[in-house]
Amino acid sequence: MPTLLIKNALLDGERRNIYCEHGRIVAIDRQQRDADDVLDADGLLAHAPLINSHTHASMTLFRGNGDDLPLMEWLTTRVWPYERRISRDEVYWGAKLAILEMIRSGCVFFNDMYWDSHAVAQAVEEMGVRAMLSSVIIDITTSESERRRQMERIERQFDEVRQYSDRVQFAVGPHAIYTVSEEGFCWAAEFARAHGCVLHTHLSETEKEVKDCYDEHGCSPVEYLDRIGALACDLVAAHTIWLSDRDVALLGEHAVVCAHNPVSNMKLAVNGVYPYRRLDGAGAVTALATDGAGSNNNLDLFEEMKIAALLQKFHNDDPTALTATEALEMAAHNPAPFFNLDGREIAVGRRADLILIDLSLPELNPVHDIDSHFVYAANGCAVDSVVCDGKLLMKHRQVEGEEEIVAKANEAARVMFSRVDGA
Ligand SMILES: [Zn+2]
């Protein structure tokens, strides 16, 4: 495996050489060493990469198509009709475009939910990043044979994804309680438990979801997941906005990773605000996420950190409601152990995953407080270079093959939309 030397990076206020071998940081000092690849990081700040805890990577193909619509109208008219006939090739190029965008904005791990985990796994493997890929199940209106087919697809993709490197992890993604039958959800939870996988779902996103759940099951969505045993899994729950005190206590008790998607929530006007202080106080893990590009419309976690902080302050009428350091923890640290990542610290023995921030940019000067700059002043373009698994994925804003990825993703989107619109 090639070695990498990052020269003169700023780390803990000093210039250091960071030497990486076999995907790990093996030395942080002032020594000069020979390496297969050398990055001149003079004046660049070394920092842990960002973690995108909930997205649908391939939905970059839907970017800007069907904006400004209510959630269910958007899903039923502008997303699902196309996704029903999306090809493997389209999933693959959509994922590649997403990964390119995430690398360029300092993120090397994403927690995905989509139809063809095998196609996304191939994109992840080739681009050199890390991901947890949830194969989705949506079966509420399908026939018994279609439900069976979805279960078989998940079983097949579990085996396919296992063939890749340890940068790729498999998970099971029952979409939401309003799109998955009780039988389907129980099967997914059981599969996750039996195979040591994470369970990944959307939860309590809208008031309607909660009302419908009370009508159908006589309890809240969180209580329903508790009843069917899903909370006992290693669970990532995206959104978790409409919560009773009992719901918050349950999510805390089970240390559920709550993926907070402030931009998507505000864009789709889910009419509620993520209850950060309540969930944090109860013991749930808050992790930041972009959701898919269809409802964001980019995958820049720097933007997400700022908006998360502003939303909590504005909503709670309290400038201390979410600090810059807390926002950065949500994006770089809180969910790291859950996703088997090393997290915020850059140290000898840790995985060689890091980003280098260009502190010469006008908007990042003067430097009083780095966490403040990350959250309030920077955007993804402040990331100069990106390293994952000891490999340089972006060198001074250049990612290998980016022109081809953009061109192929554009072509994939054109083919996907014309297939349905032209029918
Ligand atoms: Zn989502």
Model description:
The chain is an alpha/beta fold. It folds into 2 domains: 92 residues, Urease, subunit C, domain 1, CATH 2.30.40.10; 283 residues, Alpha-Beta Barrel (TIM Barrel), CATH 3.20.20. Helices cover 39% and strands 23% of the residues. The chain has 14 helices and 17 strands. The protein has an 8-stranded parallel β-sheet with strand order 6-7-8-9-10-11-12-13. The protein has a 5-stranded antiparallel β-sheet with strand order 5-14-15-16-17, with helices on one face. Strands 3-2-1-4 form a 4-stranded mixed β-sheet, with no helix packed on it. α2 crosses α14 and α7 packs across α8. The chain starts with a strand and ends with a helix. The chain binds zinc ion (ZN). The site of zinc ion (ZN) has 6 residues, from loops.
Helix content: 25-40%
How many domains make up the coordinates?
A: 2
Low-confidence stretches: none
Compute the number of strand runs: 17
Principal-axis shape: globular
Radius of gyration over C-alpha positions, nearest whole angstrom: 21 Å
Properties at a glance:
eight-stranded parallel beta sheet, 14 helices, 2 domains, Urease, subunit C, domain 1, alpha/beta, TIM Barrel, 423 residues, 17 strands
